[in-house]
Amino acid sequence: MHELIIDFNDFLTTEKKLSDNTLESYKRDIKQFVNYLMENNVKNLTTTNKTTIITYLIYLQNNGKATSTISRNIASIRCFYQFLLLNNKVDKDPTSNLESPKAEKKIPSILSLIEIDTLLSQPEVSSSKGVRDKAMLELLYATGIRVSELISLDVKDVNLEMGYIKCCTGTKERVIPIGSVAMKILKEYLEEYRKFFIKADIETSLFLNCQGKQLTRQGFWKIIKAYTKKANIDKTITPHTLRHSFATHLIQNGADLKSVQEMLGHSDISTTQIYMNLSKNKIKDVYNKAHPRA
Question: Are 58 and 118 within one domain?
Answer without folding.
Answer: no
